[in-house]
DNA sequence: ATGGTCGGAACCCGA
């Protein structure tokens, strides 16, 4: 039995509905974490997805933010926020639990703050958001469960995750201060599912709409699926779906796809 | 190259 989990910042679910339908048709994922819906919960295009076998768990918001988890398996526990979130009015978190072929799992779809200008109030809030989120996932970890986080982290953790580390040094999403936050998570029992399978790949998940960034491959790997280490034994594949980013009127982010196989205990 | 392009909202803000 196989389980496929996806994370994708769609940059408006209404604008990206057709790409989402095509992506599902091509990849048939079991669980889809979406970010930047830019859509209120009750305005989510549920009817347009009703022919598909997904349960929809939406934490929407008008204009900005908004996250969702779409799952073939119904969730038995749903949370819309985490303890001590310094910006709880922004819809950046949803968590669901599922009984799957690889065991009991908990999945978070997270949209971390961009941070704006380095040193700004937004930037400070981004760091505080990470501190609270890190505390939360450390407390949520359990021996029995596997925890997966599909996220636009808005941080590229290492030099290999950007097109030009020297040029990007000290810019938002690539300051050492931000990297420390994500690396703290990755050094405390969480595994970057793409990086562990591809230690030397210089691939990206986001390219700016401006200045021909995609054509020059000026990108950053800021979207990832990370999991507790107890899930890594099941991990068989993790890739970035560049093709979706090359379509007409795309999101500025590419989906990340991870696949897990059941291993008998 | 302190630009550039999107999406959503109301002609600017966030990314």
Please tell me about this protein's structure:
- The protein has 265 residues and is of the alpha+beta class.
- The chain has a single domain (2-261), classed as Deoxyribonuclease I, Chain A.
- 21% of the residues lie in helices and 28% in strands.
- It has six helices and 14 strands.
- It has helices at residues 17-27, 121-140, 165-168, 176-186, 193-197, 242-245, and strands at residues 2-9, 31-35, 55-59, 67-71, 77-79, 93-100, 103-111, 146-152, 190-192, 206-207, 219-220, 223-228, 235-240, 256-261.
- Strand 1 (2-9), helix 1 and strand 2 (31-35) form a beta-alpha-beta unit.
- Helix 2 (121-140) packs parallel to helix 4 (176-186).
- The longest helix has 20 residues, at 121-140.
How is this structure best summarized?
This protein has 265 residues and is α+β, with helices and mostly antiparallel strands.
Instruction: Using the coordinates shown, work out and report the CATH topology.
Output: Deoxyribonuclease I, Chain A
> What is the SS-derived class?
alpha+beta
Main-sheet strand order equals 3-4-2-1-14-13
Q: Would you identify the CATH architecture?
A: 4-Layer Sandwich
The helix/strand order is EHEEEEEEHEHHEHEEEEHE
Cofactor: Mg(2+)
Keywords: Hydrolase, Magnesium, Metal-binding
InterPro entries: AP_endonuc_1, AP_endonuclease_F1_BS, Endo/exonu/phosph_ase_sf, Endo/exonuclease/phosphatase, ExoIII-like
Family: Belongs to the DNA repair enzymes AP/ExoA family.
């Amino acid at each position: 039995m196989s389980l496929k989990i996806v994370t994708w910042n769609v940059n408006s679910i209404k604008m990206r509905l057709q790409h989402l339908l095509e992506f599902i048709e091509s990849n048939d994922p079991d669980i889809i974490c979406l970010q930047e819906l830019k859509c209120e919960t009750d305005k989510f295009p549920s009817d347009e997805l009703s022919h598909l076998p997904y349960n929809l768990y939406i934490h929407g918001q008008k204009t900005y933010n908004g996250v969702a988890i779409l799952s073939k398996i119904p969730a038995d526990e749903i949370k819309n926020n985490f303890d001590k979130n310094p910006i709880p009015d922004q819809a950046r978190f949803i968590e669901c639990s599922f009984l799957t072929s690889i065991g009991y799992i908990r999945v978070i779809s997270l949209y971390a703050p961009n941070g704006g200008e380095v040193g700004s109030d937004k930037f400070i809030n981004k760091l505080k958001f990470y501190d609270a989120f890190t505390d939360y996932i450390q407390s949520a970890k359990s021996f029995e469960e596997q925890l997966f986080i599909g996220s636009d982290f808005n941080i590229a953790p290492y030099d290999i995750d950007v097109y030009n580390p020297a040029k990007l040094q000290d810019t938002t999403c690539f300051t050492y201060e931000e990297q420390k936050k994500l690396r703290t998570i990755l050094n405390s029992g969480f595994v970057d599912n793409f990086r562990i399978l591809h230690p030397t790949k210089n691939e990206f998940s986001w390219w700016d709409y401006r200045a021909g960034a995609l054509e020059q491959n000026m990108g950053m790997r800021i979207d990832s699926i990370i999991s507790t280490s107890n899930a890594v034994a099941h991990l068989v594949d993790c890739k970035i779906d560049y093709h979706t980013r090359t379509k007409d009127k795309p999101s500025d982010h590419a989906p990340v796809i991870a696949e897990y196989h059941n291993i008998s205990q």
